[in-house]
Amino acid sequence: MNPRVERIQIGEKIRAAAIRMRDHDIGFLPVVDERGMVVGTITDRDITVRSVAEGHPESTVGECMTREVISCFANDDVSRVEELMSLYQKSRIVILDDQGMLAGVISLSDIAQHQADAGAQTLREVTTREAHV
């Protein structure tokens, strides 16, 4: 899990999300409300498909985010994360603390970094190459 996770407020413009993604070399941001509670997620694909391609480049994050938050708790076993990723076809899962606040994000590539099978090795190589391209 990456505990140093960038986040964005629901009312911010998608341009702000795109800039944050560019500046931090990420493609996923948890979306939080004014209390800091996770209310959605936004990806670079959401920005492209739901906003720019539809002709709404001035949209807010709340208008093009995914509202379904797939999450687990920080003390859950990695097998629970893998189960959720498989069930919901997600490559990133939001991690919550005991109070339900954002604690981090775990990605499929995070899991692959700690596994030894051939698929994990291929994913490690692909994500490592992508990071350097």
Describe this structure in words.
This protein is of the alpha/beta class and about 130 residues long. It has one domain: CBS-domain, CATH 3.10.580. Helices cover about 40% and strands about 20% of the residues. It has helices at about 15-25, 45-50, 60-65, 80-90, 110, 120-130, and strands at about 10, 30, 40-45, 70-75, 90-95, 100-105. The strands form two sheets. It has a three-stranded mixed sheet with strand order 1-2-3. A hairpin with a 5-residue loop joins strand 5 and strand 6 (about 100-105). The longest helix has 15 residues, at about 120-130. The protein is globular and about 45 Å long. The two termini are about 25 Å apart.
Features:
133 residues, alpha/beta, CBS-domain, three-stranded mixed β-sheet, 6 helices, 6 strands
Compact summary:
The chain has 133 residues and is an alpha/beta fold.
> H/E series, N to C?
EHEEHHEHEEHH
Look at the structure and name the CATH superfamily.
CBS-domain
Number of helices: 6
Which architecture name does CATH use? Roll
**Biggest β-sheet, characterized?**
3 strands, mixed
Helix/strand class: alpha/beta
Question: How are the SSEs placed, and which strands pair?
Answer:
Elements: E1 8-9, H1 14-24, E2 28-32, E3 38-43, H2 44-52, H3 61-64, E4 71-73, H4 78-88, E5 92-96, E6 102-107, H5 108-112, H6 118-132
Parallel strand pairs: 1-2, 4-5
Antiparallel strand pairs: 2-3, 5-6
